[in-house]
Specification:
- The structure holds two protein chains of two kinds.
- Chain A is mainly alpha-helical.
- Chain A has helices at residues 10-19, 28-37, 40-57, 59-62, 91-95, 102-109, 162-198, 200-215, 218-229, 234-244, 247-260, 264-271, 276-313, 324-333, 339-366, 368-374, and strands at 63-64, 69-72, 75-77, 114-116, 120-121.
- The longest helix of chain A is centred in the last third of the chain and has 38 residues, at 276-313.
- The radius of gyration of chain A is 25 Å and the shape is elongated.
- Chain B is mostly helical.
- Chain B has helices at residues 2-28, 34-41, 50-59, 66-78, 92-127, 132-146, 149-163, 186-224, 227-234, 239-247, 252-268, 271-276, 282-292, 295-323.
- The model of chain B has no long low-confidence stretch (mean pLDDT 83).
- The chains are: A mainly alpha, B mainly alpha.
- The A-B interface holds A 208, 211-212, 214-217, 219-221, 223-225, 227-228, 230, 301, 305, 308-309, 312-313, 328, 331-332, 335-336, 338, 341-342, 345, 348-349, 352-353, 356-357, 373 and B 14-15, 18-19, 22-23, 26-27, 29-32, 142-143, 145-148, 150-151, 154-155, 157-158, 161-162, 173, 225, 268, 271-272, 275-276, 286-287, 290, 298, 302, 305-306, 309-310.
């Protein structure tokens, strides 16, 4: 009975959840959300983060040279998906030698074809040439590429649209923020939980490990790990950022577990014979999660910062991947082209600012000490 | 206290051995060697013969597997020898010695500036807490705190070095001296270095300034609510004295730990900023050493950084006991 699988305990669970709204106070998360909503700056940051996520996810529909959806030779295709993954480009367009020039080729090879296009016809990877899109001039190159009607944020030295790179770069930033922080959070929570819950030699060993990773300069660790992979792609970069950034989460989780493991509800669970892992993940972790979310939110900011810094130094994801840091690096080589510095710089700054604001707000709405002070 | 110190130092030594071991394993397993890396850039006709390559590998101890080589490195270290840089043909200590000056020039200046500005600003913010001017100041500082230094550096460069080019306010794009530095008179030299330092120091300072300021303010707000502050106010102590003597002195405890923790930053420099400003400091040496696969230099720098980090932590804990008599280590 003690080791009942999850399916065996719905009745007591339903009982408590039915009682909770009547007797108990509002749940921690609901309480926190109510307090969070009152903070105007935090809500603004949240709106920005959500907007950025939407832009990142919909980036091929906002700027691109591939139709979102088209009918070609009697079939429906979604060529824009190729921006997420090169291999998703429908094979027929290779066979018919489109060479990524969709507008003219669609019309030329199938007069009955139709397509829905992205809002702006520009590409994050290559220069759009003259009349590729009817009536649109080719992108200017070099210092001529200042912001204009067709290139909202100008073009790079090679004539690649900055706005397109920025929008598609949002996808990279979003991915980096989520994946690296996810990796860091999982490692940090597991290590912190084990160290805090079991104590003794487990704690001593894991604490040394935490100290070890904290002491090695992050950049050595990242550069060395990336160099070992030889041909790092964006996923490698994200994982490497994640496995170097978990120490903050681990230390906090460890502290929370040490605090919570001597409370009555843990004792009760132990008395009922729950296993160590079950106590860790089902009983203590949900109670320790609120404070742990704070370094996670700050972690997203720092992951985005590290990725753009790495790209800036030339160690980021390989060239075809649009990254804000790569753009900034292009701006560094051509300082008189201010639009190469201002727009990506502002994007990085605002994103980091938003995640920092979110983290701080989370800290203040979930920390009971600060909560009372605020009243 | 003595027992505590001994224990901490022993643990620290253990950590050091682990760190150097892990880093050595990592860098020796990076693809490419310090010898072939440079030759790949040279023309193929000058490529080394196989025997020569092997001879060089042997001379630098690269023929041995990394775990054996690590103990050689360790043995030399115990005799006070950090080894010779492979790519620069100089002792590592000399290399580091050359770069410490420029890095300290930036980091010490910016740290002093940050402390000098952060304390009064933080005190001001805590006194005016909640008023419009404090909100403005805090928001501004918070934005500065979130502004990445390399973004700021590029903004500043494109303004001061490009936009203002030709005006008296123009600041140099990179480097530590101008080309005609040796001919300048003494004051000219000082002025020249100061002009080159201005932007890097600015980029180094604003972030820590914002951080310290928030730190001072949040600690002050906690202290200001205490009873003894109300007592002091009630008995008629002038407000400035209450803030500086009664309140601020009590926030020094966390402040002191902060000083200990900023210590490694003093010498590590910043890879990205030094790269942007082409400043001949430690961060740049580190970056170059990694790209050149210059193992002895990387190891020397890593050793230095980790010793500083550990000493900084220890120092923070000891200072903590010094300023707060309630804390004892036994």
């Amino acid at each position: 009975m003690m080791s009942t699988p999850r399916g065996g305990i719905p009745i007591p669970q339903r009982d408590t959840s039915a009682l909770a709204p009547r007797v108990g106070p509002r749940g921690l998360w609901r309480e926190a959300w109510i307090r969070f909503r009152r903070r105007r700056l935090a809500m603004l940051a949240l709106a920005y983060v959500i907007a950025l996520a939407v832009v990142g996810i919909l980036s091929p529909a906002i700027v691109g040279t591939r139709p979102i959806i088209c009918k070609y030779k009697g079939k429906i295709y979604f060529p824009a998906l190729a921006y997420y993954n090169r291999r998703w480009e429908p094979e027929i367009f290779f066979r018919d030698k489109f060479r990524q020039r969709y507008p003219e080729n669609l019309k030329a090879r199938d007069p009955h074809s139709w397509a829905i296009w992205p809002l702006i016809y520009q590409d994050p990877y290559r220069r759009v040439t003259s009349n590729e899109w009817p009536g649109q001039p080719g992108n200017p190159t070099g210092a001529q590429g200042r912001p204009n009607r067709y290139n909202l944020m100008g073009t790079t030295q090679e004539g690649i649209d900055v706005f397109a790179q920025l929008v598609h770069g949002a996808r990279t930033a979003l991915l980096v923020g989520l994946v690296s922080t996810g990796v860091a959070a999982v490692i940090g929570i597991i290590i912190g939980a084990l160290a805090g819950y079991f104590g003794g030699w487990v704690d001593i060993t894991l604490s040394r490990l935490i100290e070890l990773v904290m002491c090695i300069p992050t950049l050595v660790l990242i550069l060395a790990l990336l160099a070992i992979i030889e041909k790092p792609n964006i996923w490698h970069v994200m994982v490497v950022i994640g496995i170097t950034g978990w120490t903050g989460v681990a230390r906090l989780t460890r502290g929370e577990f040490i605090r919570l493991k001597n409370t009555e509800f843990v004792l009760a669970a132990q008395a009922m014979g729950a296993s160590g892992l079950r106590i860790i993940f089902r009983h203590i972790l949900p109670n320790a999660l609120a404070p742990v979310l704070v370094p996670i939110s700050f972690g997203v900011a720092s992951a985005i910062l590290i990725e753009s810094g790495l790209s800036f130094l030339g160690f980021g994801p390989p060239p075809p991947h649009p990254s804000w840091g790569t753009l900034l690096n292009a701006g560094r080589a051509n300082l008189q082209m201010w639009w190469l510095v201002v727009f990506p710089g502002a994007a990085i700054f605002l994103t980091v600012l938003a995640y920092n604001l979110l983290g701080e707000a989370l800290q203040e709405v979930t920390d009971p000490r600060l909560r009372e002070a605020g009243k | 206290m003595f027992g505590y110190l001994v224990r901490r130092i022993l643990i620290g030594l253990g950590t050091l051995i682990l760190i150097t071991f892990v880093v050595y394993a990592l860098i020796r397993n990076m693809p490419g060697t310090p010898i072939t890396d440079r030759l790949m850039e040279a023309d193929p006709s000058r490529r080394l013969r196989k025997e020569d390559l092997e001879r060089l590998m042997r001379a630098y101890g690269l023929d041995k597997p990394w775990y054996v080589a690590y103990f050689h490195w360790m043995g030399n270290l115990l005799q006070g020898d950090l080894g010779r840089s492979i790519s620069r043909k100089q002792p590592v200590t000399t290399l580091i010695g050359e770069r410490i000056g420029p890095t300290l020039l930036l980091s010490a200046t910016s740290l002093i500036l940050a402390y000098l500005l952060a304390v009064p600003l933080g005190l001001y913010a805590s006194v005016r807490n909640g008023r419009p001017d404090e909100r403005l100041l805090s928001t501004l500082l918070y934005m500065l705190y979130s502004l990445p230094s390399f973004v700021a550096a590029l903004f500043l460069l494109s303004f001061f070095a490009v936009r203002l080019a030709g005006t008296p306010f123009e600041l140099p794009l990179f480097g530590m001296h101008s080309d005609r530095f040796p001919e300048l008179p003494f004051y000219g030299k000082v002025l020249d270095i100061m002009r080159h330092m201005f932007l890097p120091v600015l980029c180094f300072t604003y972030g820590s300034l914002a951080y310290f300021c928030r730190f001072v303010k949040s600690n002050m707000l906690e202290v200001i609510r205490q009873d003894y502050i109300r007592t002091a106010q009630a008995k008629g102590v002038p407000p400035t004295r209450v803030i500086v003597v009664h309140a601020f002195r009590n926030t020094l405890i966390p402040f002191v730990t902060l000083v200990g923790l900023t210590m490694p930053g003093l010498l590590s420099g910043s890879v990205i900023l030094e790269q942007i400003f082409a400043w001949p400091g430690m961060g740049r040496l580190f970056f170059e050493a990694i790209s050149e696969r210059d193992y002895p230099t990387i190891m020397g720098l890593v050793l230095m950084f980790s010793v500083l980090t550990l000493v900084g932590q220890l120092l923070a804990d000891i200072l903590y006991a010094v300023v707060d008599p309630r804390v004892t280590y036994s």
